[in-house]
Write a structure and sequence with these properties.
It is built from 15 helices and 19 strands. The chain is of the alpha/beta class.
Length: 547
């Protein structure tokens, strides 16, 4: 017999319900809870100032020592007790798994507001952008806002608007649809040619388990992907682990020795539970070799390793391997038992955390940059955080772009010689493994994001300059985020801090360098032309096409 449906009372007009989502990993939820609790107290005070009561829709767990929704089923159970017409706030100060709350948010009828604290600590901004991108893909209307302490004028005015109208309007004047007629002739020709070649000699994304960390926005349905000439080879992380076991100790040592000869440093210790060890790094070297061999076996043009769930309990982190795969200059790997070098002369594109949107983006970048004679080394980064910096000739908002180690050494000051590997944080990576850490070199950058909206593929393209900050400012920013990970200091062209947050459709963005502003503009135009020819709707953010 079906359970009797419980009657749910709609909150009073001056009451707003609050929900929050967390990690699947208990250690992460416990570590992040103090920041979440602090944020909720400030947010509650802000609502009280407006005459509203902000009420948690689910309780703090004394047993688990946190108040996050920590699984999809728990999220569904919480939403069963929420009136569908209630005013609802999703608030996060930490990275969170969007699928914990997405089922309930998709069916909720009342106004939804998503909120994050302006902090790089855990980070809520990245969690907010992931949920926002997932809701946009799902076609669910919502509003969103962010703040350092929830007392600033920007936040309070936006909160007034949402409480009054059930929506917030942001400035998106920096976004313009691509007019293909305005593309430079050479870029239009090359981009179209590269698109035709991709559709003729179709490409394969090797997907080592789909749907990492609840990132619904990072999954592209085949029906949308295939018309662009791109297909998935669905691979298992267990097969990757099995293939690692066929790699010899001598082969792994060869990769490590190559890195040491290049000048890369490793921050080794003796306690594997909290420090990096040589054994962990050698396992990562085996993963690098195994990924290249499997990529070759299946004819992959790019690969994505999920790692975070499942594989994290079996082997050290994948990030060092990912950074090596993404670099044009990397340790040579040969087909098993032969002298055939695999993917010689360039990267095997890796899309971190199996973000398929980033994979499509990186694949297109690789084709365009290679055709233009530019270094095709590319990576995705988290849109992690940012702060204004004044001094040393700068007076700008400087973004912190950061990823867990998958950035290629060619992006760093002094390349491998400027790179260091540190043990990944134990609360995320229980078996350790090293990052590929460095500071991105000053230079001209094209940034981009492929995303899903309205049942179609879109892409935002823009320009940035990676800038050099003093060592003490870089260290401060690392302390405010994750010090073990590579970092890019980026000044966006023609896009303010709030415009970027208001528009960006994901927690990730892709970056690639060009040697000059002129070559970066040309690369952007070529990439826009190729994406458009593939049937992807292109938007230019803060930039104009070169004449």
């Amino acid at each position: 017999m079906a359970a009797k449906k419980e009657k749910i009372t709609k909150p009073n007009d001056d009451e707003v319900l609050l929900i929050t989502s967390g990690d699947l990993r208990l250690s992460a939820n416990q570590a992040c809870w103090p920041a979440q609790r602090d944020m909720e107290e400030k947010l509650t005070a802000a609502f009280a100032q407006k005459g509203y009561k902000l009420i948690r829709a689910h309780a703090y767990s004394e047993q688990e020592k946190h108040g996050f929704i920590s699984s999809q089923r728990r999220g569904m159970n919480v939403f069963m007790k929420i009136h569908p017409g209630a005013k609802l706030v999703f608030a996060t100060a930490a990275w969170q798994y969007s699928h914990h709350v997405l089922p309930g948010l998709r069916s909720h009828k009342g106004p939804i507001l998503t909120v994050a604290n302006w902090s790089g600590q855990w980070p809520g901004l990245v969690g907010l952008l992931n949920l926002n991108g997932s809701l946009i893909k799902a076609g669910r209307k919502f509003s969103f806002i962010w703040s350092r302490d929830f007392t600033d004028e920007f936040f309070l005015n936006a909160l007034d608007e949402w409480l009054r109208d059930g929506k917030i309007t942001h400035d998106l004047s920096h976004v313009h649809a691509l007019d293909r007629k305005k593309l430079p002739a050479e870029s239009a020709r090359l981009g179209a040619q590269l698109a035709r070649e991709l559709k003729h000699r179709k490409a394969i994304l090797g997907v080592f388990d789909e749907g990492c960390m609840g990132m619904y926005n990072a999954i592209i349905d085949d029906e949308l992907l295939n018309p662009a000439g791109i297909f998935k080879e669905r691979l298992s992380q267990s097969a990757l682990l099995a293939r690692m076991r066929t790699v010899s100790d001598a082969e792994a040592r060869g990769v490590y020795d190559w890195l040491v000869a290049k000048g890369m440093k490793f921050d080794f210790g003796s306690d594997p539970a909290s420090q990096l060890t040589l054994d962990q790094v050698l396992e990562q070297c085996k993963m690098y070799i195994a990924a290249l061999r499997m990529g070759k076996d299946f004819g992959c043009d790019a690969v994505g390793i999920q790692y975070q769930q499942g594989l994290k309990d079996m082997t050290p982190a994948s990030d060092l391997a990912e950074g090596l795969l993404n670099n044009a200059d990397r340790p040579p790997v040969y087909a098993e038992g032969t002298q055939e070098e695999l993917y010689a002369g360039g990267p095997l594109v890796h899309f971190n955390e199996v973000d398929e949107c980033a994979g499509v983006d990186a694949l297109v970048t690789n084709r365009c940059w290679t055709a233009l004679g530019l270094d095709p080394s590319t990576t995705l980064h988290d849109v992690r955080w940012g702060d204004h910096y004044k001094g040393d000739g700068l007076d700008n908002f400087v973004w912190v772009f950061q990823i867990s180690g998958a950035a290629p050494a060619n992006h760093f000051v002094n390349g491998y010689a400027g790179a260091k590997s540190e043990r990944q944080p134990a609360m995320y990576f229980p078996l350790g493994g090293g990052s590929l850490k460095g500071v991105s070199k000053p230079g001209e950058v094209v940034w981009s994001r492929v995303f899903l909206e309205g049942g179609k593929l879109h892409a935002d393209l823009g320009r940035a300059t990676a800038v050099s900050l003093p060592a003490e400012e870089t260290e401060r920013r690392w302390r405010e985020t994750t010090s073990q990970w590579p970092i890019m200091h980026a000044v966006l062209h023609g896009v303010t801090q709030n415009q970027m947050m208001a528009r960006h459709r994901a927690n990730h963005l892709n970056v690639a360098y060009a040697p000059s502003a002129e070559s970066a503009d040309k690369a952007l135009a070529t990439k826009a032309a190729m994406l458009a020819e593939l049937g992807i709707t292109v938007h230019l953010c803060g930039v104009e096409l070169p004449a």
